[in-house]
Amino acid sequence: MLGLVLTVPANEAELASDALWALGVAAIEERGGTSGTEDDLVELWTSLGDDAPAVARAAEGFPARWRWKVIELDPSVTETWRAHAHASWIEKDLVVVPAWLPFEDPPGTTVVRIEPGATFGLGDHPTTVLCLRALRAALPLRGSVLDVGSGSGVLAVAAAVFGAGRVAGIDISPATPAVAAANAAANGVGERVEVTTTPLADVDGTYDVVLANLLAPTLLALADDLVRVVAPGGALVISGLLADRYEHVVAALAPLQSVERRTKEGWTAITLRR
Q: What's the CA gap between 108 and 172, in Å, rounded?
């Protein structure tokens, strides 16, 4: 299994960790760094699956001062995070549960079970929580959804569980389609979810809700196509943005207009409409 080692100044370790979490990593190990100054360097070790080109493309969105390299990881080490996984309550009646954990469904609660496999996204990162809340609020009855950067399929599967009539997901990782399909089937919505590795530029048609939980550089690079695939009267939900640094991304998505903003732990998700 391939891993990513990201070397950053110690005083930027928290920011760098958040950037990795936004990519959907399952766990991060911090090595080195004791003084907490910019001259002190920290290594952040994490697994990013088996697709080296996808890892490289993701890392290209990091600031140039952050150095990174791809390494081979022992699979047994990368699985230790599972022992510490837990259910993530999104709202009082909505919870995302790691598929291997015993969990008794509370009455009146929507439960989404996710097995990330060789992909990433367990529903517990603040950006995913924010996207799920925004999706639930924006999704029309039997509406269509496009999830850009699906990972484990947590957003795509949740959209179908919420009642979307048709859900498409895309991701650059070749591991994503099979994992997302398995998660959709496990949640009883397999017939309404299709996830592929189709580039966004090649996606035809429009959708009632488009989800893009991606880092700012990627959102900027995809801005024109993100706008293109939003149906008239539809919504675009973006996240992966720092709460104090998002205006330039919103500006790039014109003529869509920001109508709602949610924040959590220094991250923000924004809903835009035509």
A: 36
